[in-house]
Amino acid sequence: MFKTILMKDLSALFKQKSVILTLLMPALIIIAIGIIPLFLESSAEPFQVHYLMEDEGIEGLNLGSTIMDELKILFNNDNNIELVELADIDAFYAADNAFWLPANFTEIANATRIATYYMIISDSNIQANPIMTGQVQGTIDAVITRELLPVQPPEINAQQLFPDEQLTEAGVAKNRGNVGFGLAYIAFLILIMGGSILKITGFSAERESGMMELLLTSVHKRHYLILSKLITGISYGFASIMSYIVGLGVVLLVSSIVSSESTNFIASLVPEDIITPLSIFAVILMFVSLSFMSMNILLFFQLSMGREAGDRFGGTATTMLSILFYMTSLVDPLEESPIQVVNPYYWPFKLALNMIFKEDLLRSLLYAFMIISFSIILLKKQTTAIEKEKVLFE
Amino acid sequence: MDYYICELKDISKAINGTQILQNLSFNIRKGRVTAMLGPNGSGKTSSIRVILGLLNPDMGEIWLFNELLDRKKIRGKIGLLPQSNSGYRQLSVIDNIKFMIKLAGVDFNSVQEELYSLLIRLNMKNLLNKKFGTLSGGESRALGLIRTVLTGSEFLILDEPTTGLDIARAAEIRKIIQEQINKGKTVLMSSHIVSDLEGLAQDIIIIKDGTVDFSGEKQEVIDFYSPEGSLEDAIISAFTSKEVVTNV
Lengths: 394, 248
Prior knowledge:
Largest sheet of chain B: 6 strands, mixed
Low-confidence stretches of chain B: 244-248
Low-confidence stretches of chain A: 163-172
Mean pLDDT of chain B: 86
Order of helices and strands of chain B: EEEHEEEHHHEHEHEEHH
Strand content of chain B: 25-35%
Number of strands of chain B: 10
Mean pLDDT of chain A: 79
Strand content of chain A: 5-15%
Radius of gyration of chain A: 26 Å
Structural class of chain A: alpha/beta
Number of strands of chain A: 5
Number of domains of chain A: 2
Radius of gyration of chain B: 18 Å
Oligomer: heterodimer
């Protein structure tokens, strides 16, 4: 009987054209954002990386010269990127995308094991972030580490200068931030879409289609009805993930064909070194958990408060939680403020981030425990509520 | 006891402080069509829900199939045609029928022949692959009845089975219901359509203000409320009379 109910719920959802179109949207958007700039860039002027290289070096070591040699080799075959030398410090401050290796760069780095250089990155150019923090900064950091490592691992300060000269985070944290922002954004979309699909598959929809009485009088084990709807919600969440993955896959494929992966904005958000089986599993787990929890909360309100109040209150509660989750993640996806920790939607998100960056095992276990406990409590409440049939009468 | 398929004894139920059923008692005889009548809001739907185990009474006893009602055990044993047209708009007609038949634990292949026969009789065979949402009100109603009949339940509760149907389909539906009675099934029907009552109903229960005003065979109802008039006159008289009479 459970299979019959589940197949009905899945058919009722996935046989709707609007649902299929909604699922295709993420793939189409990612493809559009990722691919169109590739072709626009190919006909545009090359991206200019300005540099001011003043490093005088010390005997036997000039980090600046080595860095410049490697950057020239890196960009030699790339028609889309051009290295442009700056005349002085005033030109550096006036440039859009530039880095500065000071005169005593090697000397101080060698003496103190702290290498500090400066960057200016334009906010207005979509290519600026992946090129400057990705390729340029990556090359500089790699050279510094390689040259100074035999003695002692150096500390590297890549100080980004904005017009107001505020300092920002270094590249590694930036990568984490990119992943966090990306995940939070996609999670937010799934949570918002989850609310809309419940209008198609939830108990309110059953009542609107006149089937609620028939189901309650025909189905011996009513928790089958709840489980079926939860699995349908998870399937939808999973289909959404597949849409993102397909979109991303197409972008990466096209990028590799046109040899411009390095300048692709979408590709730059996913640092290659974190694409591992564990991180893919973590992301899937996060989306499945979020879909499950979102459906669980909405169904709980529908069943325990009746149709009208349940729909209104459940819809408002999940939307508020989703918005709070996204807003707090926008401020800083790596932060753990009290307002985030009390939000159930934050738990799968933080668990996934911890798994991707292999951090804080104990806290990850705590989040997993909270997710499981919260889900079980809601499921039990729903099973009790459906036996009281509030959804039918109130 | 075998004489009745369902007995309600002194059922009372209040929801949010409003008494919707009060000392409601009636019996439904096996193998017959019993019509439940009453003005709007009189308690017909609540009575049906009590029998279905969907509404737990505050007081009273319900006996069904010779057993005291067990709300969990009764699930799947009664064929229900709800008052509203029920079905999944996005699924095809055939998928809707298959779903309810499978839910009732009936093998679809075993009823396929009967299904096509009923669809042909109701001139609906060409609708099988259409989306349920595209059907007219009358077509949805007829389909609901087909679905209810095919679940194979001994006891059918039909809430306004011919509402919205054209004359030809309504007449065919009445024949189909009569055939179910001939097979030994029992039907509890709620309807305000006089031709349904005249053509099908054998017993009638009049419910007013949450209690039974009168119950008995059809002729007894006419004799009681309007001895010189028709069944319609008797029903109008029953609905408009202020006095509540406790009877059989």
